[in-house]
Amino acid sequence: MSENIINVTNLAKCYPIVHKDEWVAGLRHSVENIIRNPLRSLLQSREQKELFWALKDVSFSVQAGEVIGVIGRNGAGKSTLLKILSRITEPTRGRVELNGRVASLLEVATGFHGDLSGRENIFLNGAILGMTKAEITRKFDEIVAFSEVGKFLDTPVKRYSSGMYMRLAFAVAAHLEPEILIVDEVLAVGDAAFQKKCLGKMQEVSRSHGRTVLFVSHNMSAVQQLTTRSIMLEKGTVKFFGSTEQAVEIYSSTAGAEAATFFDVDQVPRKLKMSGAIRLVHFRFDRVTPYFEAGEDFSFCAKVRALEDMPQFRVSLTISTIEGTAVGACFGPERAGLKRGEETEVKITLKNPRLAPGRYSCDVAVGRGSHRTTLTDFDAVSDTLQFEVLPEEGEAGTVAAWHRNWGSVAFTDLAY
Amino acid sequence: MSHKLVLEAGRTERQYWRDLWRYRELFYFLAWRDFMVRYKQTLVGVAWSLIRPVLTMAVLALYMMLTKQPTGGVPVPLFVFAAMLPWQFFSTAMSESGTSLINNSNLISKVYFPRLVMPVSAVIVTLADFLISGVFMALLMVVFRFVPPVHIFFLPLFILMVFAAAVGTGLWMAALMVKYRDVRFILQFIVQFGLYASPVILPPGKVPQWSHGLPMQALYSLNPAVGIIDGFRWCLLGGDNVIYWPGFSVSVAVVVLVGFTGIWYFRKTERTFADNI
Q: N or C: which terminal CB in chain B sees fewer CB atoms within 10 Å?
């Protein structure tokens, strides 16, 4: 019988919610407290604060050699769980038993220094991740080969392309030899070939070396490919722990209730300063969830307000993957305008965009003209309108896999 | 393979010191990184670590000569530089290690390692500058044909003392600064003010041992830089530069106190660094 390599019992983590003026007060606040009421501030160091439980009563155990997916919406507690397991922060309550060395690939490039060469950074990052100099020297050639940056080994990494940079970072981290490896969305970087290599490396690590991997991702198809069992977190608790198939199903179905379908953007600060002659007020999906079936039309409503007389305007959008890679853009035709102060809601429909299953973000802009004429934008909102394209149903009622390496467009109608 | 590890709230990890030992090479790597990076894209490079103390020394020495301050029979540049040596090390090391955590906040919030490594390796980097200045001190002695007294063999003890003082205050500053960025400004103030509050340009015997019924020299020695600078002068210059032992023991006591409380406070707050930074 194999022993559990990770045992988590009743784990909880809470953060005090710090209010803005409290930060401003800084040291003064504490000093004041001590002076005003020395006895009390010594006896009870904190006045009552609002608390936020990022994790509540989380328990699970993992056996050696398993690859476990960790899924959940933003804010479900995934990152907090990983931070506790990798000892970056301490639990508020509960207990974790780890029967092995843990290495986490949470943002692998953090140890890098731009001014140092690739060679120097391998040693530096290795040491920060807990390798000894001897270990790094022994694996040096392997790391270089894996990262494919051989020629630029003596160039400062600030001159690297972002792909090279991430490849080198992942290469160092992948050659740690921990019994437990925690991977958090690192696969979002690098080109398709390198992503494949990373996935391969992770599979190799778990299969041939019997290591345990915790794989955290928003990408359901990657989770399905790599893992057989998954933990699904929701609002800081374990909602489900079992087969990945079921977990993904639950993830896709339950998320609807809390996933936003209305986005008030009137007061949201804009990234780009524009005239704002027409302003975007809100977006909404005219359905209960922001989920679209594969092959379905994508549509939403946008409310706009004219701050000046506007004879004509058009809406344009850019759809990107949740990791930020643009998939495509579209300029709508110009339509009848608005008088100053008028508001209207426009329904925007994109006929079968052929998006592959996955999460996307839609940037919206209002303006005049298009890429074929002169182009003026009055207002643009990015990273707000998010939606997900659900996987198709495969044969025998299972969820059809879509490899991330295949890209974000699902072409149809292939002819021979 | 027994790497069993238990994480629980409030548990001072028993394996902390073992971990620190396991990460011992990180002291070196971080210090090496900071040293390599510091003079990247500069024209004169490592010479900067000499230019600053030498120019400061020149100005202070000029001042002492113009106001005809006694130096106990030692050439003025030597007198000033013997004090600049530890003071420069102490002030730079303290500010570098004090700001080390917030300057590396990305590492603190993303990777685990014993946090103690960070401020201590910042002090180690400064030690490199100290060695360079030390060579310059030797050169000055050759130029002025000055033969140091035999006490020079005690110098390592005083280097240890200034190192401990820098680590102790650095740990306090670093741990406090995670939560209160105000400390950054206090630090600047200490560094500026400290040059005058320490006997860098104060002739020997200027502060009386007793005055107004108070042990002035001992009180003055509450500033640990007083004992350290006196010690350096005694080792390097000798002559009238003697150590006033009661005052010196006060300085030593302060260094020890600051050192141990620094480690204690750092360890106490370390667990919440990632949450607060």
A: N
Is residue A372 classed exposed, middle or buried when 0-12, 13-18 and 19+ CB atoms within 10 A define those classes? exposed
Q: Within 13 Å, how many C-alpha atoms sit on residue A234's CB side?
A: 16
Cα–Cα distances in angstroms (integers) from residue A231 to residues A78, A207, A251, A256, B181, in the given order: 10, 20, 10, 18, 39
The CATH class, in words, for A4-12+54-256 is: alpha beta
Report how far residue A366's alpha carbon sits from residue A312's, in angstroms, rounded to the nearest whole number.
Answer: 10
**8 Å CB contact of B1 and A179:** yes
C-alpha distance from residue B180 to each of A41, A308, A341, B186, B194 (Å): 17, 47, 47, 11, 22
**According to the model, what pLDDT value does residue B162 have?**
94
Cα separation of B137 and B131, whole Å?
A: 10
> Nearest C-alpha of chain B: how many angstroms from A15?
8
Of B237, B207, B235, the residue nearest B222 (C-alpha): B207
Taking the C-alpha atoms of residue B173 and residue B181, their distance in angstroms, rounded to an integer, is: 10
CA distance A257 to A393: 22
Token code pair at residue A253: 């179905």
Chain B residues with CB-CB distance to A133 below 8 A: 25
Count of beta carbons in the 10 Å neighbourhood of residue A383:
13
Q: For residues A310 and A344, what is the distance between their CA atoms, to the nearest angstrom?
A: 13
| C-alpha B250: how far from chain center | 17
CATH 2.70.50.60, chain A: domain bounds: 262-389
Interchain pair A99, B4: CB under 8 A: yes
For residue B175, what pLDDT band results from cuts at 50, 70 and 90?
A: very high
Q: How confident is the model at residue A63 (pLDDT cuts 50, 70, 90)?
A: confident
Report the DSSP pairing between strands A180-184 and A212-216.
parallel
- Residue A265 CA to residue A276 CA, distance in Å, equals 13
Q: Which pLDDT belongs to residue A30?
A: 67
Radius of gyration for the alpha carbons in chain A, expressed in angstroms and rounded: 25
Q: How many CB atoms lie within 10 A of CB A193?
A: 9
Cα A109 from Cα B100, distance rounded (Å): 19
Can you tell me the distance from the alpha carbon of A23 to that of A36, in angstroms, rounded to the nearest whole number? 19
Beta-ladder partners of B27: none
Of A46 and B139, the structure prediction assigns the larger pLDDT to B139
φ and ψ at residue A126, rounded to 5 degrees: -60, -45
Q: How far is CA B163 from each of CA A21, A27, B158, B183, rounded to the nearest angstrom?
A: 39, 28, 8, 21
Looking at CATH, the fold of the domain delimited by A262-389 is given as Coagulation Factor XIII; Chain A, domain 1 (2.70.50)
Instruction: Give the pair of three-digit tokens for residue A337.
Output: 């305008």
